Amino acid sequence: MMSDLLLLLGLISIVALPIFAHLFFYDKIQNKDNQKILSFLSLIPGIVLMCGASFLSPTQTPIKSVECGVVKQYKTYKIRHRSTFERLAVVMDSSGYIRYFDFDETLPRLQSKQHVCFELYDRFKNKGLSESRIVKIISDK
After folding, report:
1. Of 124, 138, 137, 73, the residue nearest 100 (C-alpha)
2. pLDDT digits 0-9 by tens, 52-101
3. CA distance 90 to 98
4. What is the pTM of this model?
5. What is the 3-state secondary structure (H, E, C) of 68-101?
6. What is the pLDDT of residues 79-89, one digit of tens each?
7. What count of other Cβ atoms lies within 10 Å of the Cβ of residue 78?
8. Which residues is 118 bridged to in the sheet?
9. Residue 120 in contact with residue 132, Cβ under 8 Å?
10. What is the b/e burial string over 127-140, where b = at least 16 CB atoms within 10 angstroms of the residue's CB?
11. By the 8 A CB rule, do 55 and 77 touch?
């Protein structure tokens, strides 16, 4: 909360302070070099506030989860210019729903209808992730 407030104040002051300095102090300074320096010095408070906000913002470590399910299929998706990527469809034991996962290419390929437990980075528990990703296969049953 505090870091968000500092970030907002920093963004406002980066825009507002140079305008304020130009309107009120630019004409009163006779030396042209000091006029240029004033423009750059008016940016410093905003930069300091934004650096403080980035320092105070909490770092998020990704949370690993352990889930089990039955492998349904590998699904290949085609994207621009003939490049493709694959996802693994798994029917989850906990919910019964099908979920699609990215997986590491170094993991062994699994057979369809095989029950497996695995470690993953779940996108529902880690806000920064766009997709869930399987990291390690724990056991095959």
Report:
1. 73
2. 888 888 777 888 989 899 999 888 888 877 788 888 899 988 888 899 98
3. 5
4. 0.58
5. EEEEEEEEEEECHHHCEEEEEEEEECCCCCEEEE
6. 877 788 888 89
7. 9
8. 67, 137
9. yes
10. eeeeebbbeeeeee
11. no
Cβ neighbours of residue 5 closer than 8 Å, sequence gap 6 or more: none
Report the b/e string of 14-33 with b at 16+ CB within 10 A: beebbeebeeeeeeeeeeee
Residue whose entry in the numeric block shows the structure tokens 């528990």: 125
CB atoms within 10 A of CB 54: 11
Question: What does the block give as tokens for 47?
Answer: 């930069």
Residues 71 and 100: beta-carbon distance below 8 Å: no
Q: Which helix (H) or strand (E) holds 119?
A: strand 115-121
